[in-house]
Write a structure and sequence with these properties.
Shape: globular
Structural class: mainly alpha
Helix content: 55-70%
Mean pLDDT: 81
Number of helices: 5
Number of strands: 0
C-alpha cells in the first residue's frame, strides 16, 4: 500500500513539473525535457570539477550564471558556444577549458538546464 501511495506522489510531482516552466515563462515543456537532459549531461561530463549548483568553485555556480543571463535563445547559443569553445575574462582570470568533442546539441541542453535554474 505504501508503495502505491509513493508511486502516485512521484507521478503527480513529475507531471506538475512539466507545467511549471510553461506557465512561468514563454518556454514550453520542451525546455523542461531539455533541462532534464542537460542535468544528466552535466553529471556525465567533467563539469563538476569546476562548477557547483550553488557555490563558486573554480568557475561560477550555475545559479550565478542563471542570474546573469536571462533564458532566451541568444543566451542559450552564447553559453553553449562558451561550453564548446571555452573562454576567459567573463568570470575572472581562470579560463574555462574548451569541450570541443561535445555535440552542439548537448551543449545547448546543458545551457538550457543552467538557465532554467534562475529563481
Amino acid at each position: 500500500m505504501k508503495i502505491k501511495i509513493l508511486t502516485a506522489i512521484i507521478t503527480l510531482t513529475s507531471l506538475s513539473s512539466f507545467t511549471k516552466y510553461e506557465s512561468a515563462s514563454g518556454y514550453s515543456a520542451v525546455t523542461e525535457i531539455q533541462s532534464s537532459e542537460g542535468e544528466a549531461l552535466i553529471k556525465k561530463e567533467d563539469c563538476a570539477t569546476c562548477h557547483k549548483i550553488d557555490k563558486k568553485v573554480v568557475g561560477p555556480s550555475y545559479l550565478d550564471i542563471a542570474k546573469k543571463y536571462p533564458m532566451n535563445d541568444k543566451n542559450i547559443k552564447y553559453l553553449s558556444e562558451k561550453i564548446t569553445k571555452g573562454g576567459s575574462g567573463v568570470w575572472g582570470a581562470v579560463p574555462m577549458s574548451a569541450h570541443t568533442a561535445m555535440k552542439k546539441d548537448d551543449a545547448k541542453k546543458i545551457a538550457t538546464y543552467i538557465l532554467s535554474l534562475k529563481k
